[in-house]
Amino acid sequence: MNQRRAWPCARLAILLLPLVFAACAHYAPPKAPDPSSWRAHAGTEGDDRLQMTVAVLTDQEARETFGVDLHRRWIQAVWIEARNQDTVPYWLLFPSLDPDYFSPHEVAYSFRRQIGHRGYLRLAAFLKAHAFRNPVAPGVTRRGFAFVNLDEGLKEIDIQLLSSRRMEHFTFFLRVPGLHTRGFAEVQEQQAGHPLQDIDEDELRFALTYLPCCTTDAKGQGEGDPLNLIFIGNPEDLVPAFIRRGWRPAEDTYWDSVWKTIGSFLFGHRYRYSPVSPLYVFGRKQDIAMQKARDTVNRRNHLRLWLTPLRYEGKSVWIGQISRDIGVRFTLHSGFGVTHKIDPDVDETRNALLQDMLYSQGLKAFGFVRGVGASTPDDPRSNLTGDRYYTDGLRAVLLMDHTPTAMQDVRFFPWERPRDMQMPQPAERTLQATADGGDGTQPADADPGERRPPK
To answer: What pLDDT is recorded for position 20?
Structure first.
């Protein structure tokens, strides 16, 4: 055989090697699933009539249960137990779990090259046998798995059950181990010993105006990104709203997460939890970092939050910073050599978050206060990594609540108005009346220093 004929044959042999190995691969289904390993971190809701128990399997639990690594296929197994003591059957609506959920055969087929055709058939039969099946008849307890897209850190599970009489809705927020992050509840627990200052509505505007304008570096020097957000809420108020709108925690900054970010940037790998660089307020780096990622690590919205010592209506007050990442660039201003390029119009990103929280139905009221300091496109300011930005100088104030609020029922703090954001402010929906009967809005050029503190 001459050399010209040998090369095509060699290439064909190389291409056929994976098929040969797949044909020889062997898959033996594990034993019947044992729910005792994940019941410890399951959540239960319902009453004597209808009760739901839900658990998200960890990576190790999924490997032991199914004999394959679902994590590598960006798939997550959700175990569901439905106990029906009603007089009518119920049907679980799988799109409520995930509009893009996976069927048992779809999950099995994704492993066909690894376990071969016979292995695929065995795995498909195993998954099908242990999948959750409809309906849940009266007096029956139904158990089984559903397969959804992978989420890490904190996962929201929505369960909708339909009967001939009614629709039942259950929501679970379950912690998924694996990410190096901190949650809202953890931050509050760590700050539990610090003194708190309860403020009323008259004091709220004044107090928020005089919080720091910007982030700093670790030494408390320089002016970084503007602190253009105020969230008022406890964990049960904040977590559901963020998760429902696709916000996910950002991992802490350490070498593994940085390398994953660089790999995602260079090779287009999926990484929805890319860390944010540490910025400082009150002498400490951000307490909470969250992001709303897109299909690439280059573009995302991300925010940082710090817990303040203020409390309003029994709710914690958080000061924060939000900006939109529009690219990734190398820099000497970061200890890891890489940082994100931000959209210079930080007000647009602030307003986008406000509208996002409207859609979450977790927003009870909002308004704007001064405190950031204005800049213009012709005379912008710069953050600590040299990115330029401009702003109207206002920070958005968002009062959150765990009880859903329809958009038309959201109320307003009648304070400042952004110049480029015309907001209707019907008197019956404002949170406070002014002494002169006006709308309470300060002129855009009012000096915060002229305001007197409340008595």
So the answer is: 46
Domains of the chain: 21-176 (2.60.40), 184-450 (no CATH)
What phi-psi label fits residue 453: left (phi over 0), alpha (psi between -120 and 50 degrees) or beta? beta
Q: How far is CA 431 from the centre of its chain?
A: 29
The arithmetic mean of pLDDT across residues 214-230, rounded, is: 94
Q: Is the dihedral of CA 364, 370, 371, 376 positive or negative?
A: positive
User: How does strand 284-285 pair with strand 229-232?
Assistant: unpaired
Query: Which ranges in 86-234 belong to alpha helices (H)?
Result: 94-97, 104-109, 112-129, 184-190, 201-209
Give strand ranges (E) for 2-152: 43-46, 50-56, 75-84, 91-92, 141-149
Per-residue b or e along 421-448, where b marks 16 or more CB atoms closer than 10 Å to that residue's CB? eeeebeeeebbeeeeeeeebebeeeeeb
Cβ neighbours for 264, distance < 8 A, ≥ 6 positions apart: 270, 271, 274, 296, 297
pLDDT at position 323: 85
What pLDDT is attached to residue 258? Answer: 53
Alpha helices, H only, 268-389? 346-360
Write out pLDDT tens, residues 313-364. Answer: 999 999 999 988 765 555 545 554 555 567 889 999 999 999 999 999 999 9
* For residue 414, cis peptide bond before it (omega within 30 degrees of 0): no
pLDDT of res. 304 = 92
Contact 91/100 with Cβ under 8 angstroms? Answer: no
So what's the pLDDT on residue 386? 77
Q: How many CB atoms lie within 10 A of CB 268?
A: 12
| H or E, element range at 316 | strand 315-330
